[in-house]
Amino acid sequence: VAAATFDQFNILKAEHPILADIASFQSAHINHLTPRTLDISAVQAAMREAGMAVKARIEGPPIRQCLILLRQTSFLALEEYVHFRTAIPELIKAGHKARFGEVEERGAAVTEQGKILYERLLQEAMALTANAEPEQVDRIAEDVFKQYPDTWTELRSKGLIHCEYFCIGKAPPGEAGQQLDALALERLIAQGVIEARPITYEDFLPFSAAGIFQSNLQSRDKDGRPLQMKHPEPDLLGFVEALEEEPVNIQSWYSLIQKRSLKAVAENLGMTAA
What we know:
two-stranded antiparallel ribbon, 8 strands
């Protein structure tokens, strides 16, 4: 049974569906879980084949050989029946949509340089896809993102992704005691002595997440007019004060993993870390 009456629920929903979802029930509830998949395109196709109501397109970078960041989709929120109190002592059974199914495929964590390139290409693609159909959006995005390197070697050598390094062979004669600098690293990777593995992206994409939520919200008010959304006002200081500690800098975290792995590889090969 909802905490709000049916009339109160409808007033809140007319203002904004998220407001109704938060204020109309007695306790918090999980609105979605986010399982990880190895092939988001296959999941999207399977949901459509099963007759599920799904997003029109997958959010995030376009299809690539080397996935960066993450791609995500969802089936739309299902209607669930809830009992609401009324002015008279009886309950009304009505529908409410809040919980939806999100799925994501995670790729490589990008460096600050890689993030800047991604955001530039995203803005370029968005400028070319205003009012375009979902299929057109995907095709245009794929063309624009051809500017983003798409081999692990190029992504790594150009400093666009974070990698963790592993020693998988013995150092050739003459390497012991040498410094594991950038040239030595590339040489030993080519020789099959060191292996580079992309670090998995463990954050989320605000723009893509907004697309998921937007697809599950009504976009017009009760009179058919577009809902007016306020411009977001980030408040990092307020967030830190509420958290009572500084959040982890995700780029520093990835860099630390990479640096520690290079140090371990150097020690295993009898070399010194750069």
